[in-house]
């Protein structure tokens, strides 16, 4: 008897790609149905700013509609669809959920455990994309790429950017501090080595690799990293401990003229304090790809500052990210159907 699998994707995580990889991994013994949500053409909900579903972050879809689509499926593969306790109570046949993202922020994990539903995720699916984007973000700030571009678009030739007191610095002469040494942070370290810069890592929960240590990467406390780095780039997860952990005191500890890069998650930063640090000139600049509220309000003060580069949460957006996530999810589905242990249980 074939197993029923519901796939809820969107216009980034295409459900057709997941269906293709699951069929390839599992053969024809699966009955697949797909639903495509309108993200990113329409915004998702962000529980960081208050949620209609307690405990769920970054999700899209109405619970009744999602539950009706899942129906009697035993397996669910999803990117953004919410799974709450009340939904699980209506889905007694559901025993497996694969979330195509780094963390199951759209799943009530305690409820899943209570209902004996196995949840797996796809860690590192966008590690390459975000790491590459981070390098671009650092260069855009430190080499004045954004400043020069904006001036030319406004009809101004910024020859003064050649002045010794205004021009940028090369990465090879700078110290870069990476906060968080997971799949993305460790890859940023690898890419930065080619530039010859001094690299610091702050992460109290892991040890850096022997290779990185032999290459001169230093594992230091966050306070030391903030005081020494010319560029601070964030790659931590959002937890109670890390929520707004880059606040007024931490920003004051960063050396004057340094740059802050956030391609991780918006709630890591106190944006009012960041605004003040940028206006005062204590920070030389910032590059932000993620925000506490998304989309950002059109009157958000940071939009008006000249020393900030802002992008709409696109660091992880690449075709390869979708393929990697689909491959990981398909393998988890195959293992579940075969009675094998999961690779990435949540």
UniProtKB/TrEMBL annotation:
Residues 63-345 form the D-isomer specific 2-hydroxyacid dehydrogenase catalytic domain. Keywords: NAD, Oxidoreductase. Residues 136-315 form the D-isomer specific 2-hydroxyacid dehydrogenase NAD-binding domain. GO terms for molecular function: NAD binding; oxidoreductase activity, acting on the CH-OH group of donors, NAD or NADP as acceptor. It holds the Pfam family 2-Hacid_dh. Its EC number is 1.1.1.-. It comes from the Bacteria. SUPFAM superfamilies: Formate/glycerate dehydrogenase catalytic domain-like, NAD(P)-binding Rossmann-fold domains. Belongs to the D-isomer specific 2-hydroxyacid dehydrogenase family. This is 2-hydroxyacid dehydrogenase YoaD. It comes from Bradyrhizobium ivorense.
């Amino acid at each position: 008897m074939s197993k029923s699998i519901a796939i809820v994707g969107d216009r980034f995580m295409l459900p057709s790609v997941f269906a293709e990889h699951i069929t390839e991994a599992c053969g024809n013994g699966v009955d697949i149905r797909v639903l495509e949500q309108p993200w990113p053409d329409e915004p998702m909900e962000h529980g960081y700013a208050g949620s209609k579903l307690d405990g769920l972050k970054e999700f899209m879809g109405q619970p009744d509609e999602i539950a009706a689509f899942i129906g009697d499926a035993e397996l669910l593969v999803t990117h953004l669809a919410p799974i709450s306790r009340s939904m699980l109570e209506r889905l007694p046949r559901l025993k497996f959920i694969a979330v195509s993202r780094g963390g199951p922020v759209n799943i009530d994990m305690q409820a899943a455990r209570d209902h004996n539903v196995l949840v797996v995720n796809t860690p590192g699916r966008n590690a390459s994309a975000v790491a590459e984007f981070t390098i671009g973000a650092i260069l855009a700030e430190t080499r004045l790429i954004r400043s020069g571009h904006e001036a030319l678009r406004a009809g101004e030739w910024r020859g003064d950017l050649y002045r010794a007191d205004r021009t940028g610095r090369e990465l090879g002469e700078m110290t870069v501090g990476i906060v968080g040494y997971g799949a993305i942070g460790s890859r940023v370290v690898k890419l930065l080595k080619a530039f010859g810069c001094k690299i610091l890592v702050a992460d109290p929960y892991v040890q850096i690799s022997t290779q990185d240590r032999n290459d001169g990467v230093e594992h230091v406390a966050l306070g030391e990293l903030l005081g020494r780095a010319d560029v601070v780039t964030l790659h931590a997860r959002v937890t109670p401990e890390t929520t707004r952990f880059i606040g007024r005191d931490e920003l004051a500890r960063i050396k004057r003229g340094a740059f802050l890069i956030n391609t991780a998650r918006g709630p890591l930063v106190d944006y009012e304090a960041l605004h003040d640090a940028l206006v005062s000139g204590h920070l030389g600049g910032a590059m932000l790809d993620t925000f506490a509220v998304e989309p950002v309000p059109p009157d958000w003060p940071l939009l008006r500052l000249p020393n900030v580069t802002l992008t709409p949460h696109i660091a992880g957006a690449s075709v390869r990210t979708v393929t990697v996530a689909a491959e990981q999810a398909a393998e988890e589905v195959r293992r579940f159907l075969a009675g094998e242990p999961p690779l990435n249980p949540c």
